[in-house]
Protein: Phenylalanine--tRNA ligase alpha subunit
Organism: Laceyella tengchongensis
Amino acid sequence: MRERLTSLQDEAAIAIANAESLDALRELKVKYLGKKGELTSVLRGMGSLPPEERPVIGGLANEIRAQLDLLIAEKESAFEEAALNEQLATETIDVTLPGTPVKLGSIHPLNLVIEQLEDVFIGMGFEIAEGPEVETDQYNFEALNLPKEHPARDMQDSFYITPETLLRTHTSSVQVRTLEKKEGHVPVRIICPGKVYRRDDDDATHSHQFTQVEGLVVDRGVSMSELNGVLLALIEKMFGEGTEMRLRPSYFPFTEPSVEVDIYHPEKGWVEILGAGMVHPRVLEKAGYNPERYSGFAFGIGVERIAMLKYDVDDIRHFYNNDLRFLRQFRSE
């Protein structure tokens, strides 16, 4: 049996060396080393050997199997390397060709304005506050001195979800929530950027969804002159030093006195950009602040209005149409 194993080893080695393809090599592996292969067939005759010879023949068979496995693996590796070299030779890559251009996005103009406003107010010591877009009637109206049936509610035609739940019509609701969290402590110095919703017909200057940045300051001794200084600093940062500003008397239920703020535009004349005023004593009282000890001011900025003036945009709908020709103009900002 020893001679038969040795002869089988030599025969298999020659066949493996002469194999001309990967498929032929795999057939040889099955022929000699498979479950029904020739090596297995020889080993089936070990039962006729004397007991003392069986371990010797078994060890020899294992050595032959290991050597043949090694020869097959080396030959298989040679075939694979040759196939790879042939593929590399036929599939050349021209590294001088230009790459596929990557289209870079840009920050949306409304986000640009919001980021600029945040930078201005953070520089003046304000913090950024956030709140839910789906709001309760209590926070959106009643806590802001707008009880049910108040005629001023008609100024903000609303999207109601239930009789007591609606899409917020302004971010002033965040101011109320912040005052409640402060539990009567001062100073309060925040801005509240976010989306708001009102039932309105969309046209060049109106949208049912738009963006506001509300501001609130509450402390001891806060005055109208401080509000004037904050607004003037804001306007000069956003539109350039020397921009003229004026305050006109107005009415808002949650501020008293209230003003409309205009800036002078070289081509459009005086243009309204925001509303502001001193926080109404009832709003302070409802939020847990003694209006005899504390005062404050608030303002609401329409981000779209600022962006339209700053970037000379003539139609508010451009901000929401996802027209790449429009948006690409802000790539360098």
Residues 54-90 form the longest helix (37 residues). The chain has eleven helices and ten strands.
